[in-house]
């Protein structure tokens, strides 16, 4: 067995001093693909993790179209009840909302009496909202209800009451409640 006199030297061949790297690896316009390009396993795992996190936040909020319509209608009704309350305070005149379950599935905001429907500032017509059509298709009012507010925003009629809407009587069901003394509006 021969012994290498200098054991610090490598037995592998070394590159010559005139070694030039593959020109295709450094040239992005080269038609020859770079064998070192692509995604690492860590990069792919990070993308999957980010997608899973996004899906975890979105999936619970996804409901059917009808559920979305019922939720949108409940927020609209809640906002309109609050609007009537604010009108009563700002004009120092009683304002209210009356709900008609059957056969029309409508509600209107009125001033002083239910026959004096206020003007909708966007359409210029009577402030009457039709459910079970358009954006609120399939949404119905389950019972009639009326709430009226005085100049302090307190309910004089219908305080402590509620209106229930649903997808033609099935889930999801939302109840919009007006607190008796304060007139606070909540959705359950």
The count of DSSP E runs of length 2 or more, i.e. the number of strands, is: 9
Order of helices and strands: HHHEEEEEEEEE
Strand order of the largest sheet: 3-2-1-5-6
Which homologous superfamily in CATH is the superfamily of the domain at 66-187? minor pseudopilin epsh domain
Number of helices: 3
CATH topology of the domain at 66-187: minor pseudopilin epsh fold
What is the helical fraction, as a range of percent? 25-40%
Indicate the mean pLDDT. Answer: 82
* CA-CA gap between termini: 90 Å
% residues in beta strands: 15-25%
Core attributes:
26% helix, 3 helices, minor pseudopilin epsh fold, four-stranded antiparallel sheet, five-stranded antiparallel sheet, 9 strands, 188 residues, alpha+beta
Structure, explained:
The protein has 188 residues and is α+β, with helices and mostly antiparallel strands. The chain has a domain at 66-187: 3-Layer(bab) Sandwich (minor pseudopilin epsh fold), CATH 3.55.40. It is built from 3 helices and 9 strands. The chain has helices spanning 23-26, 41-58, 65-91, and strands at residues 95-100, 106-111, 128-130, 139-141, 145-149, 155-157, 162-167, 170-178, 185-187. The strands form 2 sheets. Strands 3-2-1-5-6 form a 5-stranded antiparallel beta sheet, with helices on one face.
Furnish the topology, listing elements before pairings:
Layout: H1 23-26, H2 41-58, H3 65-91, E1 95-100, E2 106-111, E3 128-130, E4 139-141, E5 145-149, E6 155-157, E7 162-167, E8 170-178, E9 185-187
Antiparallel strand pairs: 1-2, 1-5, 2-3, 4-7, 5-6, 7-8, 8-9
